[in-house]
Recover the amino acids of this structure.
């Protein structure tokens, strides 16, 4: 069976066709995965402008879906279902995908499957690597989320911890912005950090010990917090600006050092927390997915610690790390096989829980 996946939760319009293989180890095969990125539009504003995003999704969605079907050699009649991201994300953006998927499912007489965006990011690990050894600890780290899950059986996700404030990707984007770098900041900071000294600037790493009042069901000591780190970077830049005039507070060497130092703290925090959770829950593997899993240091450090501690670690391919519809299609297939479909009264939910 083939499924069409649609993803429009933020600033990527994406459609993909994914096929079931029948193999339990590698359940899905990507037939096409088309992504129309809006970064060039939002860059001018230094971040995603929701109203511009939803308008661009409307312009792109038909062409992106047609191309995904074309590249897969598929027609509407050889699809078995349509899967779409229901949330979380920007409500105007989500609505475009949800409305399109409902119309398409109704017109083609296909079942509709509603997918949680983070279930998609988790599924990207399986798309690329096959089923992970379970139980697994999975860290989803993106522009909107930094959350640790325990996956005890395929498709069952137990939230272990999350960020109390900024997501890791958001911290990357904000730090890049205050350094006058491009949007999205993650890839730029990652690149500049390679030439920097990661011990040049002393930045704080936040370690939480107490439960979050807003999530008392979680113990809290595996939680993340990145806003203090971002403020420390801001203070560092301001201190330098005082002596030199605000136009060029830091020279390229200092920027590289600051990027490397910031990245060391973020990556160390993410990796340490994931391994702590794996130890605590006796996980047989660790997976890291979401936009920030494209980070070169995160990939390298995860691999190194995994080898050192004899823990298998997994990341998606670079293309499957950032937002794409193949992961939504795959998560949709899993849900469809579990017998869960949605009605035509489906609505976008910007804060959908997993
Ligand atoms: O998963 P994603 O495409 O969208 C969300 O669901 O948020 O993640 C986008 C985030 C952005 O914050 C971006 O700066 C970050 O992922 N990102 C990176 C890298 N590539 C993308 N962060 C660090 N290093 C990278 N190489
Ligand atoms: Zn995402």
């Amino acid at each position: 069976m083939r499924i069409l996946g649609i993803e429009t939760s933020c600033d990527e319009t994406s459609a993909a066709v994914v096929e079931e293989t029948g193999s339990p180890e590698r359940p899905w095969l990507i037939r096409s995965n088309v992504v129309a990125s809006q970064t060039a539009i939002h860059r001018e504003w230094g971040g995603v402008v929701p109203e511009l995003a939803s308008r661009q999704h409307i312009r792109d969605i038909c062409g992106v879906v047609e191309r995904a079907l074309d590249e897969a050699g598929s027609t509407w009649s050889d699809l078995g279902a349509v899967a779409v991201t229901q949330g979380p994300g920007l409500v105007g953006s989500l609505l475009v995908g949800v409305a399109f998927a409902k119309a398409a499912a109704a017109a083609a007489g296909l079942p509709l499957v509603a997918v949680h965006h983070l279930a998609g990011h988790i599924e990207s690990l399986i798309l690329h690597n096959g089923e992970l050894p379970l139980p697994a600890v999975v860290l989803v780290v993106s522009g909107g989320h930094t959350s640790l899950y325990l996956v005890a059986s395929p498709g069952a996700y137990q939230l272990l911890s999350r960020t109390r404030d900024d997501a890791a990707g958001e911290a990357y984007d904000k730090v890049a912005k205050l350094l006058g770098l491009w949007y999205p900041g993650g890839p730029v900071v990652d690149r500049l950090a390679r030439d920097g000294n990661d011990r040049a600037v002393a930045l704080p790493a936040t370690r939480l010990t107490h439960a979050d009042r807003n999530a008392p069901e979680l113990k809290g000591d595996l939680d993340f917090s990145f806003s203090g780190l971002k403020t420390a970077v801001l203070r560092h830049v301001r201190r330098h600006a005082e002596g030199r005039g605000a136009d060029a507070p830091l020279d390229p060497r200092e920027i590289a050092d600051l990027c490397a130092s910031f990245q060391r703290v973020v990556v160390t925090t993410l990796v340490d927390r994931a391994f702590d959770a794996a130890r605590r829950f006796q996980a047989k593997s660790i997976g890291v997915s979401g936009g920030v899993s494209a980070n070169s240091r995160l990939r390298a450090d995860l691999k190194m610690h995994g080898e050192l501690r004899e823990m298998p670690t997994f990341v998606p391919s670079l293309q499957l790390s950032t937002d794409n519809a193949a992961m939504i299609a795959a998560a949709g297939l899993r849900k469809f096989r579990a017998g869960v479909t949605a009605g035509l009264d489906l609505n976008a939910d910007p804060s959908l829980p997993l």
Summary: The first helix runs from residue 39 to 43.
